[in-house]
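In keeping with the milestone schedule agreed at the kick-off meeting, the structural modelling team has produced records for the first pair of proteins. Each record is given below as a sequence line and a structure-token line. The laboratory manager (R.T.) confirmed that both were archived under the project's standard naming scheme.
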Amino acid sequence: MNQSEHATARQSAEEYVRSARRIVAFTGAGISAESGIPTYRDAENSLWSKYEPDKLATIDAFMSNSTLYWRFFQDVRYQAIKRARPNAAHLALAAMERAGRLQAVITQNIDGLHQAAGSREVIELHGNTRTIRCLACQAEYGMDEIFEQLKYELPPACLRCGGRLKPAVVFFGEELPGDAMERAAKLANACDLLIAVGSSLVVYPAAAIPTAAKRNGARLIIVNRTATPYDDLADAVLRESAGEVLPPLARAAGIR
């Protein structure tokens, strides 16, 4: 995309935001990468370029040997999330919601940065790492508490019943939470503009949400540094960082 095409795409995106009445955001790992959280794929330093997802991210692997996951959580995941802070893109989306211009954020991310930025209507399709749950008695713990427990017990066990603990994330091989998918689908079907930010749009069924919005008559803006399978379907494609694109879009929505 040359400079002229880029400027035209930006102008179109801003106009779509100005004229929209029911805006929904759909976010992926790219928005969190700008806060220092590594993406899973599509980058030299992505997590899956360093670790084997079939040993860390599948439910079968977790159930057969959770120690590998909890070491990864202790050494990599926890530290990245604790250091991360919401960036300009997270803050812009939160401001759009407060101003009544954004209905909700539908996210594939598990880091809680949208909530930290002030977004209230956040639908987490892949769960989150902030909550750790006992699979036996359903007791819940915060990730800070479990991080401390990992210093003397690996894998950690439920302090109430001794059962197996699992983060409240959706592993490969697990179904996405039905209530979250239902809410996301309703929003996508009813919106008139969906802004997809930082998602490669290859992980299903979550990646079907933006295309569902488009099928139901909404405009689609894609903000992603690299190409996605749905760029040709989009009304505007901006291959820039989310932190550069979202604040101007928020200003186009009337937020100063």
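The second protein of the pair:
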Amino acid sequence: MSAPLPVPGLADDPVTRPFWDALEQGRLLLERCSSCQAVIWYPRGFCPRCGSTATDWIEASGHGTVYSYTVVRRSFGAFAPLTPYVVAYIELAEGPRILSNVVGARPGEVAIGLPVELVVEKPEGGPAVYRFRPATGEPPGGAEPAGSGKP
């Protein structure tokens, strides 16, 4: 892909603010239920498994695999000149599956089971967004390997 994908605007939501703030720093946070230990995606402030509102944030490793994907070959608006591009469900090492794009590879190079790693894109004047690229074996974003903790 020659140009970065467009980034939609984000609503300012206090429940998800820690997620977006961490992403600006190049870190991917996930919520974890303090009661049943389920790792939660998408950020929502409660556990969909047990209903608890006791959640905390953990830092994800940034590693996963392509669970499923599609190649977008026709689009409209700002996305139209960027076709083809890949939209995929990424199964994170921590368990949840998240929807994202696979960048840094031609669509024919993407396959189910492909190891991927986090790449945080920070478009000028817009919010940071998470995307994934084929794994290189180096820590995502050139940072130290992620641990866990609160933002």
